[in-house]
Design goal:
The protein is of the alpha+beta class. It contains four helices and seven strands, in the order H-H-E-E-H-E-E-E-E-E-H. The protein has one domain.
């Protein structure tokens, strides 16, 4: 059922790239894809916390905040602007990760804020989000 709902929502965007730039379009997708919000990799001896999935839907969000290792989600993730003047408004042109010393990240708490003031949150352990 979730797959059918997601496929239906994905078909809602126009072929000209005008879809998925509002909260109404983005929030249901994020609700269904919580497990994919962040990823944790390692490179050059650093923990790299990837926000690629979330940033792909940033046009419908107000803000992303995160906290590490039990801390409140007070870190504001810098997001590039929505490229509304292009055919791909959600295209990512900047690096979608933050870097920390190796082994720093044991857990992550993420809160997505929407333009209407609502928010959704999810927590992850290191083991759940490792991609390497």
């Amino acid at each position: 059922m979730k797959k059918l709902l997601l496929m239906t929502m994905l078909g809602a965007g126009s072929a000209q790239g005008q879809g998925f730039t509002t909260q109404a379009e983005v929030q249901p997708i994020l609700e269904l894809t919580r497990a994919n919000w962040v990823g944790l990799g390692q490179a050059s001896g650093r923990d790299l916390l990837y926000f690629t999935h979330l940033l792909s839907w940033r046009c419908g969000m107000a803000e992303i905040r995160y906290g590490l290792n039990g801390a409140a989600a007070e870190n504001v993730l810098q997001m590039e602007p929505c490229h509304r003047d292009t055919n791909q408004p959600n295209a990512i042109r900047e690096l979608p990760f933050v870097s920390y010393p190796p082994g720093t990240i044991e857990s992550v708490h993420v809160v997505v804020h929407f333009p209407d003031g609502t928010q959704i949150a999810e927590g992850f352990t290191r083991a759940e989000i490792r991609i390497d």
